[in-house]
Amino acid sequence: MKQTEKLEKTLNWLMGISIALLGISSTVLSISGLSGFALPDWLMRVLGIVSLLSLPVLVYSAVKKALTSREAAKQPVKTAATNGVKKPKKKKKKK
What we know:
This protein is mainly alpha-helical. The protein has one domain (about 5-75). It is about 70% helix and about 0% strand. It contains two helices and no strands. The chain has helices spanning about 5-35, 40-75.
């Protein structure tokens, strides 16, 4: 497995986990707020801390993923037709 594939897999995993944690915590907090059901103070604090910790992870993984995809786009694509084939040199015209 290449290094970039391993990094991409890790970044996808981090993004998925952080999005899931943000979704769960925001859903619980919004449902309790809309329904008028009062959550215990400790639960609200835990959900807030989970949200605050998962936001930087999401931002880091999104930025890192964008930068690595930009670097990968700059590299030339190797195909079967061009792999290992050298371009012919241009001939100089004599005056």
